[in-house]
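User: Before I run my own analysis I want an independent prediction to cross-check against. Here's the chain; please return only the C-alpha cells and, at the end, one sentence I can use as a sanity check.
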Amino acid sequence: MITLAELAALAPSPGRHAAARFSLTPPDEPARPHVDGLLAGVAEVDITPPPGMPKAGFSKNAHDGIGFRNRLRARVLHLRAGSTSLAWVQLDLLAGSSLLQHLIAHEIAERTDIGISGLVLGATHTHAGPGHFDASDFYNRFAANRPGFDPAWTAWLAERISGAIIEAHDGRVPARLATGRTEVWGATRNRALAPFIRNADVADQRLDSERRFGAVNPWLHLVRVDQATGDPLAAWAVFSIHGTGVNHHNTEYHADVWAYLTDELRSRTGAVAAAVEGTHADVAPALRPGRAGFLEAERIGRRIGTGAAELYARLEPELTEEIPLAAALREVDLDAADGGEADGIRLPLPALGASQVAGAAENLTPWIGRIPPFRAGHPKRRSRGPHGPKWVLGSKWIQPRVLPLAGFPRVLSFQAWRIGGLTMVGFPFEVTVASGRRIAEATAAAGVHTDTGSDVVVASVTNGYCGYCTTAEEYQLQFYEGGHNLHGPTTQAWLAAQGVALVESWRDGASHAASLLPQRDFDLHVHRYLAGTEPGASGRRIAEPARYRDSSGEDPGFWEQVWNDAAAGALAWHEPMAHVEVERDGDWVRFADDQATSIGVLHIGDGRYAARWYDPWLGGDSRFRFVITTPGGDLVGEPFWCGPAGAP
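Assistant: C-alpha cells:
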C-alpha cells in the first residue's frame, strides 16, 4: 500500500517524464454500530492549485491555468443513520477518480466510520480545473492540453479531501433532512438534438418544439439538511448542465456555471451549498448567441441556484430525522474472464470515433469540425462489427497500435447511494438525457425501496471518467457524443443492468454492499505540473495604483491591483490572497474577498500578480482599497474612488 507521501515522491522534477507503478488494496469496511436518528456534518476545502496546471475538459484546445477567476472547492456532506455512513463529496473538477477514491478511503479509515462503499466522489464537470489525477493513462493524456499523471497533485488532492471528510465526520451533529425536486427551464439546451430525436421513445412527438422541450433534463434534485437546532447545514443539488459556459480560450481556473449556482444557493439559504452533475452529456448551457463568457455563466448559474433555493425553502415542512440510508459500490474489470458481462451484454474493446476529434457542438475544433468523417452526423453507411457505424479514428488496425488497450479505463467503478426518498446511481460516464431516463427506469423497476416512493437519479462522472454513454439510436448518427462512446451502441443497456445490480444488493435489508477487486494495479506515465514551493525572487511590493478596465462584452469591467511577489509556487493559492476594503467613518472595513465569486487572482508573469475585483459596488461614491495577503505579509494598495461619480 502506497502512502500519500510516497506517491508524491514519485513525481519527477517539473518537465521530466517517468512512470508510476503502484498497487492499492481496498481497506476493510469499519464496524458501524446502529445509530438512532440522523447525524450529519459538512465541510468545505479549497483545492485551487498554483498557476501552471493544464486545464482538463477541452483537450488540446485548452490552456494552462494562470490563476483563478473563482475558486475550486471540494465539499463534503457526511450522513450517519442506522448502520450506514456516507460521505458525498463534490469536486469542482472534470470528474471523480477511482484512484482518488481508494487513496482517500485509506486516509480516513482509522479516523472515521466511513468505508469505501459509502465514499462517493461526484463532480461539477467544470472544464477549467486541472486533470492529471485519473486512474487511466488515456484521460490523463487527452483530457487536458498536455499529457501525464501528476502524483504530487494527486496526493495533494487526496490529502485536502481526506481532511475535509474527517472534519465533517468529527463535527457531525443531530440533524433533520428532506429531499425533493423541481424543474428548472430555460437554463439548458440539447446540443445534439438530431441524435436525441432518433430515440424510439421520442420519435412519435411530431412537433419540433415538443422534441426540443423534452430534449433536456429539467429536474433539479436537492438534499436539504438542517441541524436539529434548526440552523442550516447543507444544501446538495443534482442538475444536468455541461460546465462550458466559458469557452476554451479562457486561461483561468474556475468552476464555471457551478460557482454561481452554489454561491446563489449558499447566499439564499446560509447552508454549505454544493451541486454535482446529473445526465448532462448532450446538455449545454443555454448561452445567448456569441455570448460565451463569465457574464453568461453567472446569469445561467444564478438562475439555477435561485430554483434550488426556492425548492430548499419548500422542503422545510418535510424535514425529518427518520432517514433511511444505504450505499453500494461495485468495481468491474473489463479484462476479466467475464469481461464485466451484465444482462447478457459484454462491452467490446474501446475505440475512439473520428467525430470526437471535431469536438462538441458549442466548442468545435477549427476546420476539422467541418470535414467528414470528423463532422457530426457522418456515420459509416454500413454498420459492421461491435462499433457499428463509427469511423474508428485511424482505422481499427492502426488505433490499437497508437493507443494501447492498457491505457484506456479497464476497471470501472459504479456506485449507488440512498438518502431517504432519493436513490442516486453514479457512473464514470457522461450520460445523455435519454440514456439517463432509461437507466433510471430500469433501476426503479428493480423494485428496491419502491415503498418509499424513491426517485432514482443518475449522476454522471462519478468516481472516474470513461467517455460517454448514449442510447443505441443516438449512437447511430455519430455526433461527438457517439464518437466519444468508447464501448459502442450497447453501453446504455449495459449500464442499466449495472444499476439494477447495485440496488439489488440492498434487498433483505442490507444497507452497505461492496464488490471490489482484491487489488488495483496502476502503471501511469508521469509528468509533474504542480509547482514547487521554492521562494524565488521576491521584491514584494505594490507595483502600481489600482486601475479600472472596461467590460469586454464577455466579461464585466473590473478594478485591478498589480503587485510583485515571490514565485507562484511559493504562494498559498488555496488560502485567501486578496480582499477589498471600504472606508467607513474613517475606518477600513472588509467589503469583498476572493472566497466568493467577485475577486480573482492571476499570475501575469515575472513575479507579477493581479487581483481583479469583478463586481465593484456602484451604489454611491466610496473609497476602496485592495489588501493582498500572501506568506510575506499584507500589502495595502492606494485608495481609489468607486461609484457613479467616482467611477472612471
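Sanity check: The two ends are 59 Å apart (CA to CA).
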